[in-house]
Structure formats: C-alpha cells, structure tokens
Design goal:
alpha/beta; Pyruvate-ferredoxin Oxidoreductase, domain 3; Rossmann fold; seven-stranded mixed sheet; 21 helices; 22 strands; 20% strand
Length: 574
C-alpha cells in the first residue's frame, strides 16, 4: 500500500490544515508518512499545494503520481489532473468552484453546504474535506476525533463537537457517493512520531541545553525560531527577534561569551549579513551554532522554494582563515542528532558550526518510531568558578598542545576574561608582531583542525556492497536517493554514498569511501543546484571527478519518478 494525496488551492484556504491533519492522522494510525509543501511568497492568493504520501512500509520522498487530489480551486484541477493515477480521484466542491466535471475520476462533495448544515459554519468546510478523504480511502475516523479535540481544545466543547459532526458527515457522504473508489488500506501498526526538519533542529537545540536563540525571521529558517519560542518559558530559554541578521549573530556571540549555549538561524540573504560576525567568532574563538536554511538566490530569488545553492558560501564565507564545521542533515532524525553534535563540537573546539538545511527538508514531515534521548550528549566545556579558584593566572587564549584554550565565563571568578576582534596574544590583548600572529594562527587553525577531523563521521553507504553504480548526494537528497537504490537494486549493482557531515571532509581511515567511488563504472552526483557545488568540493579536496552530474535548480525538489528516469538514462548498458 502506497498512496499520495495532494491538496491544492490558494494561500488562506486552509491547505495546511487539511494536509497537516491528514498527515497526523496517518502517523497516529501507524502508517509511514512523508509530506512536502509548495507555496508562493504571499500571504493570500497564489497557488499552493500540500502533498501527503503514506504507506505500510518506510518511505522518504514524494512521488509524481497522485491517488487523490483535493481541489480547493480551479487551478488544482487544470494543473494536476494529468498527474492522477489510473485509479485516482479528484475531490472538489462544484458550487464553490462554480464548475462541474462529469468524468468518472471526479467526486463532487459539497464541502461548504455540509459544513453549514452539519457544523453550523462554512469555515468547517476543510474539516468536511478531511472526513471525505478518509471516506474515500475507507479508513475509520476514530483517531480523527482526538486530533480535532487537540486542535480545538482552546475553542471549547461546542466548536469541537461541531467539527467532529462535520468530519463524520464528510466521511459518510464520500462513503455513500464514491461508487468507483478502489482504495484498500493495509492495517496500521503502532503510532509513529511525525516531525518536520525545522522542528527537529529546534528540538535538538533545546535538548542540547540551548539558553539563547536570536534571529531575524527569514523563510525557510523561521520555523526554528517559532519552535524554540514555543519552548521559551518551559525550558528557560531567552528568545530574541533581532532587527536584522547583523544584530542577531552579534547578540548570539555576546550570549555565548557570557557563558550560555547560543544559536542563531537564517537563510542565504541573512547569512550574507552574518559573515563579519562569523569571522568574529573565528578570531575570538567564541562557540556559536548557525542554522543556514537554503533557498534559491541570488538576492531574494525564490523566497519559498528549495535549493542547495549555498554550500560554497558556507564553506568559504568570512574573511580570513579559521576552522569551521558544516553539517547537512537529510532527515529530521539526522537533524536532531546533528544539532546536538553541533553544540558539542562548537563548545569543545570553540569554533562556529553551521547546520545547513533547505526549504524541502525544513518543511517536509517524516514519521519515525522514536528518538533515543540517551544518545544526546551534554558536556560542559566551560570553566566554572570552583575550577578557577586555585588558578593563579588565567589567559583566555592560552596556547595549548591541542589549540583549545580554557574557556572561562566573565564575572564568575576573580580572573579577567579578555578577547579582541583584532589579532591578540594569549591574554587577549591586541598585538602587531608577526611572531604572535603566526602562533595564534597555528593555535586556532592548524592545531585544532586535525582533532576536529577525528569527530567527523563518514558518509552513509547503502546498497550493493560492490556497486558498479554509485549515487552521491548531501543534505536533503537523502530520502529520494535511498528509495531509488531500493528500486534499482533488484536489477543492478547500485549503492548510495550520502554525506551529512560535510566539512572537514571525513577521513578515509575507518571507511574508504573514495575507493568505492574510484572503482565504480559510473558515479552520479545528485544536487539541487546549477553548478554541482558538492561535486566541485569533492574534486578540490580529493581530485576525484564524478562521471555524471544530475542537477536540478528550478526551486523544486527531486521526485522519485523523475529522478529515477534520469538516472536510468545514464546507466543504460552498465
């Protein structure tokens, strides 16, 4: 069983309400769920859609073929009718759309009329639509009742009861009138967690001891700000919406210097403003975690679409030379654990750590069985008062064998904590001489970097043990590549190498992933950008050149069918 539902309409019509509720329903019913959204950069109007895929086996990407289309506007029919599966169905309200369709693949459900008659208000038409979809699929609405209660708890029992009545009415109408429905859902299993990429990063930050989050809202990073703000009171976190990204990173650095775990988040345009602050973190060795949620550029580009176009920007941004770590999770689960790892590395090595995501991963939702909280690491790398009592002298930038200086907190002891944005000596005071400059550069860069590399995990290897074809990717391409390997491995020796810990590039001592690439007949790098930035990065670091690049830069993610077709064109004869 593997079904996809697409809800299309204008912004403000409740597309997210319908899609999000259905996704939660299927997850709680024990199905595997994957969702993604496509929306324009306007508050009302413009055509958007919300796509929900659910199955009785693990899934991790969206499909092109649609089983049910919920058309809330005329454009949804004209745009997506061609995507419908042979057994598929378009559900619409002819009176609301002011048009009627006679084809066997259309089901006219009077959402608005049922909402008024059974719920008492036209606004409940979306609830009717949700019920009708479940009626078409022939899945009982028992779990929907609890979801409705949770959603409308603050609005009182009367509103809850009306919405339950409206949902059941939509269910019964579809059950009675859909004479061609042939959906056969498999039994569900244990309820699953449903989590979006942005929420996973926010959750990972909170679980890692975050105490200060500062950002200026910018799609698609704003969801992290929203999530953390929702936990502010419960976990004692200070959340500040700054006037711009320059203020955001500098306030974050100030909070970190003052002794707490601090983080900021933005997209490409905001990160451009943060680059001076990034260098400030580099020279002052101040821990900071930065979430960089990519969207198509240059300039404002496509503000609500997806792309992997900022990799080189993250790798080389900031003036001067200093170490950094770059992570790029491919799933919400990876995002949770990598955010925790980001805090550990930034605190241990006193360097900036960048977590790269994009609109596709930020907004898409995945099901998972659970998160293992015992894997969450919290090590306090800062010197506290009792650790400084017997220290005769303290220098913020003491040169050590590891390059890692003792990190004290201003005001917590009698010792003075001094740093400076100019080059400085071990005490933190400004210098001009070349010898100290060389020593400080060796300390910050060359001593730390080999130790940092030891913490970088190799890429995930999935598929044939000795593949002739290797698909390589990074970040949000994880899910679609994994499913394509599952599809093609029946007839070919194919595997995936997927990188989520990008920089420094992982060593090959424990797992020689370069040998796998070098012996393959065809290596295909798959990226959501126009110039193959990851492929260029691999070539610059290792000299290895991918034989084939599949690049997509229209602001939309890869889907299973389209990417599978393109890959098959490149591997014919292998």
């Amino acid at each position: 069983m593997d079904y996809t539902i697409k809800i299309g309409g204008e912004a403000g019509q409740g597309i997210q309400t319908i899609g999000g509720t259905l996704a939660r329903f299927f997850a709680r019913s024990g199905y595997h769920v994957f969702t993604h959204q496509d929306y324009e950069s306007r508050v009302r109007g413009g055509h958007n859609f919300y796509q929900v895929r659910f199955a009785d086996r693990p899934i991790s990407a969206s499909r092109d073929k649609i089983d049910i289309i919920v058309a809330l506007d005329k454009e949804s029919i004209s745009l997506y009718e061609k995507e419908l599966c042979p057994h598929g169905l378009i559900v619409y309200d002819s009176r609301s759309l002011k048009q009627s369709h006679d084809g066997a693949h259309f089901l006219d459900v009077p959402f608005a009329d049922i909402a008024v008659e059974k719920g008492g208000q036209k606004i409940m038409a979306n609830t009717v639509a949700i019920g009708s979809v479940l009626g078409i699929i022939r899945i009982k609405t028992d779990l929907l009742v609890q979801i409705i209660k949770d959603a409308f708890r603050k609005k009182g029992d009367e509103v809850i009861a009306a919405n339950i009545t409206a949902a059941n009415a939509g269910y019964e109408y579809a059950l009675k009138n859909c004479t061609v429905c042939s959906f056969e859902p498999a039994p569900g299993n244990e309820p699953k967690m449903l989590m979006a990429g942005n929420d996973a990063i926010g959750f990972g930050a909170v679980a890692s001891g975050l105490k200060f989050y500062c950002a200026y809202p910018m799609t698609p990073s704003t969801g992290i700000l929203d999530y953390v703000a929702g936990k502010e009171e419960e976990y004692g976190i200070v959340v500040e919406q700054a006037e711009d990204e320059i203020a955001a990173i500098n306030m974050t650095l100030g909070a970190s210097f003052a002794g707490v775990r601090a983080m900021t988040g933005t997209s490409g345009g905001g990160f451009a403003l943060m680059t001076e602050g990034l260098s400030l973190a580099g020279i002052t060795e101040t821990p900071v975690v930065i979430a960089l949620a990519q969207r198509p550029g240059p300039a404002t580009g496509l503000p609500t679409r997806t792309e992997q176009g900022d990799l080189h920007f993250a790798l080389y941004s900031g003036h001067g030379e200093f170490p950094r770590v770059i992570f790029a999770p491919g799933t919400p689960e990876q995002a949770f654990y990598l955010t925790n790892k980001a805090f550990e590395i930034t605190e241990q090595f006193q360097i900036p750590v960048i977590i790269m995501t994009d609109q596709y991963l930020a907004d898409s939702e995945w099901t998972l069985d659970s998160l293992d909280m015992t894997k969450v690491i919290y090590s306090d790398h800062r010197l506290r008062d009792n650790e400084l009592r017997n220290v005769e002298t303290y220098h913020r930038h003491t040169d050590t064998d590891s390059g890692i200086s003792p990190l004290a907190i201003p005001g917590e002891s009698e010792h003075l904590v001094v740093t400076d944005s100019d080059e400085h000596n071990e005490e933190g005071h400004i210098i001009e001489d070349s010898e100290t400059r060389i020593n400080m550069m060796n300390k910050r860069l060359f001593k730390k970097l080999p130790l940092i590399r030891e913490h970088i995990a190799p890429p995930e290897f999935y598929g044939s043990e000795e593949p002739d074809i290797v698909l390589a990717g990074w970040g949000s391409t994880y899910g679609v590549l994994k499913e394509i390997v599952d599809e093609l491995i029946q007839s070919r020796k194919i595997a995936m190498l997927h990188f989520i810990e990008i920089y420094p590039l992982p060593e090959t001592d424990d797992f020689d992933y370069m040998h796998i690439l070098e012996r393959a007949a065809n290596t295909i790098c798959v990226e959501n950008n126009a110039t193959g930035q990851f492929a260029k990065f691999i070539r610059s670091e290792t000299g290895f050149e991918f034989k084939t690049k599949i690049l997509k830069f229209d602001g939309r993610p890869f889907t299973l069918e389209s990417l599978s077709k393109e890959i098959n064109e490149h591997i014919t004869g292998i």
